[in-house]
Amino acid sequence: MDKEERRMKLKFTPAYLEKLEEFALSYHTTRDELIEKIENCLEDLCKYDIKKAIESGHVSMEEAYEDHYWLPDVWIAGFSVAIIFDELYKEDCLNWDDYFNYLLKQC
């Protein structure tokens, strides 16, 4: 079993998943692609930000390196579209504490 298979996944509430689905449909992407982008951004958090997320129940991606997701094949009249993941709240997740404690152990 490699590292990718053992990686803990963040679990979202049904209401949040529904919002992601609506958002994804509006911007020609998929819910799974958005979830993957969220997880990639969260895995890049530093130890300080992970501890802050555990304490506050909120994570802000102000310092994220991977927060821009350029949508493929969306280029209209010289414009392209990027989705930026900004923040996440504990109430949108089912395993917030477990997930962020897992990330903390990975640091």
Task: Kindly describe this structure.
The chain is an alpha+beta fold and 107 residues long. It is built from 5 helices and 4 strands. The chain has a two-stranded antiparallel ribbon. Strand 2 (68-76) and strand 3 (79-84) form a beta hairpin. Helix 4 runs antiparallel to helix 5. The relative contact order is 0.21.
Number of helices: 5
According to DSSP, the number of beta strands is 4
Tell me the strand order in the biggest sheet.
1-4
Main sheet attributes: strand count, strand direction, barrel closure:
2 strands, antiparallel
β-sheet strand percentage: 15-25%
- SS-based class: alpha+beta
| Mean pLDDT across residues | 85
Quick description:
With 107 residues, the protein is α+β, with helices and mostly antiparallel strands. It has helices at 3-6, 14-26, 31-43, 47-56, 96-106, and strands spanning 58-60, 68-76, 79-84, 87-89. The chain contains five helices and four strands.
Name the features.
107 residues; alpha+beta; two-stranded antiparallel sheet; two-stranded antiparallel ribbon; 5 helices; 4 strands; globular
Topology:
Blueprint: H1 3-6, H2 14-26, H3 31-43, H4 47-56, E1 58-60, E2 68-76, E3 79-84, E4 87-89, H5 96-106
Antiparallel strand pairs: 1-4, 2-3
Helix pairs in contact: 4-5
